[in-house]
Amino acid sequence: MTDEHAGKVAILYPGDHETRQNATAENNRLAQVFQALTNLGVHAEPAVYHDQFCEEVRRQLLRVDVVSGVASFIVTGIYDLTNTD
């Protein structure tokens, strides 16, 4: 499987602006998920969300093929994800 055929995945999880600016696939609690996707040939990138910069996140999500969200983040309703369409 080549990168051009594997697609791009954004893994959505909550955080502040500093967390977003410093986020990599290796420096967060989901590092093993990022590594597993990389091993499959899938490009995965962190998508740190907060309502204060939802438009920035929305633009990022529009550039990927799949968005995977951390379930506890989505279910608890802490953030209003309707801003990202």
Which descriptors would you attach to this protein?
single chain, 85 residues, alpha/beta, Rossmann fold, three-stranded parallel β-sheet, 5 helices
What does this structure look like?
It is a single chain. The chain is an alpha/beta fold and 85 residues long. The chain has a single domain, classed as Rossmann fold (3-Layer(aba) Sandwich), CATH 3.40.50. It is built from five helices and three strands, in the order H-E-H-H-E-H-E-H. The protein has helices at 3-6, 17-22, 31-39, 54-61, 71-76; strands spanning 8-14, 43-49, 66-69. The protein has a three-stranded parallel sheet. The longest helix is centred in the middle third of the chain and has 9 residues, at 31-39. The protein is globular, with a radius of gyration of 13 Å.
Supply Rg: 13 Å
In percent, how much strand structure appears in the residues? Answer: 15-25%
Rounded average pLDDT = 83
Major beta-sheet overview: 3 strands, parallel
Helix content: 25-40%
Main sheet: which strands, in order across? Answer: 2-1-3
CATH class: Alpha Beta
Please tell me the total number of domains. Answer: 1
Count, helices: 5
Helix/strand/pairing class, anyone?
Answer: alpha/beta
Form type: globular
CATH architecture: 3-Layer(aba) Sandwich
Kindly report how far apart the N and C termini lie.
Answer: 30 Å
Instruction: Please mark out the parts with pLDDT under 50 across 5 or more consecutive residues, or reply none.
Output: none
**Strand runs, count:** 3
CATH topology: Rossmann fold
Order of helices and strands: HEHHEHEH
